[in-house]
Design goal:
With 99 residues, the protein is mainly alpha-helical. Helices cover 52% and strands 0% of the residues.
Length: 99
C-alpha cells in the first residue's frame, strides 16, 4: 500500500502547470481591459486570409459541368457488384485448383 501511495504522489509532469507558478503573464498591477470604441481591431494574418478566401469564387470547369453524371446508386452499386463478382471468380478458381 505504501508503494501505491508513493506512486500517486509523484508528479506526472516534469514542471508544474503555469497556474501553480509564481510567474505571471501580465506585469504586476495590470489586468485585462475592454477595448475602447476608438481602438481599431488588430488585423491578424488569419483574418486577412479569411477575407481573401471569401472574395474568391469557386472555379467552374465548363467541360465537366456539361456532362450528366450517373446516379449515386449506380456509382456505388456497380463497383460493389463487380468486386463481389471478381471475388466469386477468384474463389472458384482457387477451389478448382485446390482439389
Amino acid at each position: 500500500m505504501q508503494k501505491r501511495e508513493a506512486m500517486s504522489r509523484t508528479p506526472a509532469l516534469s514542471q508544474p502547470p503555469p497556474l501553480h507558478t509564481s510567474e505571471r503573464l501580465l506585469p504586476e498591477g495590470t489586468a485585462p481591459r475592454l477595448a475602447d470604441e476608438a481602438e481599431a481591431p488588430i488585423d491578424s494574418p488569419v483574418h486577412a486570409l479569411q477575407r481573401e478566401l471569401a472574395r474568391l469564387q469557386p472555379v467552374v470547369d465548363g467541360g465537366d459541368s456539361q456532362r450528366r453524371k450517373a446516379s449515386g446508386w449506380v456509382r456505388l452499386g456497380l463497383p460493389l457488384i463487380l468486386s463481389i463478382g471478381l471475388w466469386f471468380v477468384i474463389i472458384q478458381i482457387i477451389g478448382t485448383l485446390w482439389h
